[in-house]
């Protein structure tokens, strides 16, 4: 028998103990939502526009954009990662652009063939070993072994 309030405190700190047959860690889609989906979508749009403005600012005013990135954004990101790790997953501009076709409904949602899923690691390793590394001697057209990044 537990004292009143102990169960509530334990549930607050470590979460409820799942019933037999239930997963210990729920999928992120099963977690309770604290903000409506529309708010997260608006924040994602703002993060993508901010990212695009930062990239555009690198061409217009490189010093100002570099200052904003390295003196404001980079110092704040570790704090965001530590204090609210789930927030960055929801507002990351690169993740938002990656999910845009699915969210906007124009994805083909194709499943790769079985052979590609089985050999995806080897395919990725092979492609990365033959891709040129910018600035390396092998990435220049005059290089004898064009495209190879291995010595």
Textual characterization of the structure:
- The chain is an all-alpha fold.
- The chain has two domains: 6-110, no CATH class; 111-151, no CATH class.
- The protein contains seven helices and no strands.
- It is extended.
Quickly list its features:
single chain, mainly alpha, 2 domains, 151 residues, 60% helix
Summary of the model, kept short:
With 151 residues, the chain is an all-alpha fold. The chain has seven helices and no strands. Helices cover 60% and strands 0% of the residues.
Write the layout of secondary structure elements.
Layout: H1 6-14, H2 37-60, H3 62-83, H4 85-91, H5 93-104, H6 114-118, H7 120-130
Helix pairs in contact: 2-3, 2-5, 3-4
Query: What's the order of the H and E elements?
Result: HHHHHHH
Given the C-alpha coordinates, what overall shape results? Answer: extended
Q: In angstroms, what is the radius of gyration?
A: 23 Å
User: Uncertain regions: pLDDT < 50 for 5+ in a row?
Assistant: 143-151
SS content category: mainly alpha
How far the N terminus sits from the C terminus, by CA atoms, comes to 68 Å
Proportion of residues in extended strands? under 5%
Q: Compute the number of structural domains.
A: 2
Helical amount among residues, as a percent range?
55-70%
> If you average the pLDDT, what whole number results?
80
Give the count of helical stretches: 7
